[in-house]
Amino acid sequence: MIGMSYAERLEKGLIACARHYAPRLVPPDWQQTGDYRRPLPELAHLLGGYGVLVMVGDVPPSLAAQAALHHREWVENYKGLYTLIAGVLFPTFRNVQAFYIDQTAAPPIVGLQGDAIPVIEMLAGYVTPFVAARQGVPGQNSAAEVELIGLMDMILEELEASDFPRETYKALRDNGAAYIRQILIGYTRQIALTPALRPVFGDSTQPTPPQVPPRLDATQGAPSFNTQTIAPPPPPIHSPTVLPPSVLPEEDRISLAPPPTQVPDEPLFKTGSIPVFFDSGKRDKGTRRPPVPNLPE
């Protein structure tokens, strides 16, 4: 993918990810970039229904030397938020892993695969659009506390968690808001990709998460950042400190083999074969199972 534009890298990476996790989403006649005629954010949204969150984020040029470290801290906060929600609502489906879809150029394209599909859908449809719309200067929280609490209330409402005991619900909501706060103040700038499921705090005085944009042109570049000296972020409030790893993972991106002549009904490989940022750990047992997503038409 070296030498490709951001849009070309994104299309090729999304198709590669779909081949492994959701082969039905790949057009049978796809051969090269430009063959996918639908909006790329739409494909990223559909992948969420198969338990895969695709994210794009970058750091300012002044921090390029530490980019890998900041990317991992960014992804670890998303993994922590997923584990927090899934651990309470879907304890049997806490398994989550992160992997590079493409890191040959900036910005890197990252995948987050989780067994609890509804939680992945909430991250794709609420959290990532909100972060992309609200991020300000790294080290500063650009969203009010009431917004973060309100966002978590919306997510938990969608996941039908309102029947939990008050203390359990409050702890889940507040700790989830703390994770989102950490994502907002991090050094990695979220680039809008998956569209919002519905407007969030969409009055005329506040920006709203972006809706699905037109299909990215093959010559379009990724957003750039012009920043000044950035202060280190403060420690999280009411949330365990999430530290980045000290050892960098080996790079092993998804193979881009030619498309199959017939689209199989099942994924082509086991998810455990994908390189992960961290060991996903053992899955906890539980009783609550996530609903089965609708098959794409």
Structure description:
The structure is a single chain. By secondary structure, the chain is α+β, with helices and mostly antiparallel strands. The protein contains 6 helices and 4 strands; from the N terminus they run ααβαββαααβ. The chain has a 4-stranded antiparallel sheet. Helix 1 runs parallel beside helix 2 (40-48). The two termini are 30 Å apart. Mean pLDDT is 76; it is low at 203-287.
Q: How are helices and strands ordered from N to C?
A: HHEHEEHHHE
Distance between the termini: 30 Å
Broad structural category: alpha+beta
Strand content: 5-15%
Radius of gyration: 18 Å
State the helix count. Answer: 6
> What spatial order of strands do you see in the largest sheet?
2-3-1-4
Main sheet characteristics: 4 strands, antiparallel
Shape: globular
- Strands, total number: 4
- As residue ranges, the low-confidence spans are 203-287
Q: Helical content, roughly?
A: 25-40%
Mean pLDDT metric: 76
Q: What layout of secondary structure does this protein have?
A:
Blueprint: H1 6-21, H2 40-48, E1 52-58, H3 67-89, E2 96-102, E3 109-114, H4 117-134, H5 145-158, H6 166-185, E4 189-191
Antiparallel strand pairs: 1-3, 1-4, 2-3
Quick recap:
This protein has 297 residues and is α+β, with helices and mostly antiparallel strands. The protein has helices spanning 6-21, 40-48, 67-89, 117-134, 145-158, 166-185, and strands spanning 52-58, 96-102, 109-114, 189-191.
